[in-house]
Amino acid sequence: MSQLIKENRPLLMTIVIGSFITGIALGILGIILVYQGATGDTEFTFFGQTFKSTSIGIAAIFLGATVIVLLVRRTLKSVEHTISSEAAPQPQQKVEVGTHINSNEDVEVTDVDVDHNSQTGIKVGTDIDAGKKVKISGVKINTKE
Questions:
Q1: What is the C-alpha to C-alpha distance for residues 128 and 97, in angstroms, rounded to an integer?
Q2: b (16+ CB within 10 A) / e for 107-118
Q3: Cα separation of 120 and 94, whole Å?
Q4: Average confidence (pLDDT) per 10 residues, the chain, 145 residues
Q5: Alpha helices (runs of H) in 47-108, residue ranges in sequence order
Q6: Which of 86, 39, 77, 74 is closest to 58 using CA atoms?
Q7: How far is it, in rounded angstroms, from Cα 104 to Cα 131?
Q8: pTM attached to this predicted model
Q9: Three-state DSSP state, 115
Q10: How far apart are CA 71 and CA 41, in angstroms?
Q11: Quick check: 44 and 62 in contact, CB under 8 A?
């Protein structure tokens, strides 16, 4: 997940900064309108909340503050999610090669090259029931431990 965020960082930063500037601009515009005494009956519903005011400036301040609060909350939630997903231990995957074989003939497992995160969870040539010979050769396991 963090790789996706790293790849799209310029776009995400542009969106966050642009939204923050928009919220600040709405707030400043609202303050200017209140200072100049601009009036006008304003009523709107925003995320299920109805807002009524006789001053358009107060409405602009409300919208600016709401945009900034939502932006900060969502950004912090995204950062928290990214950090927790990176910190969580990754589930151990199993690698099985030449396992659970049941044959009346010869069984041969050769040239096995496994790259895996750890030595645990790797099975090569286990549970083989052969009627004749079993040959396992050329097994190379590269772990990152």
A1: 11
A2: bebeebeeebee
A3: 8
A4: 71 86 92 87 81 86 88 83 65 64 73 65 68 72 64
A5: 56-87
A6: 39
A7: 4
A8: 0.52
A9: strand
A10: 27
A11: no
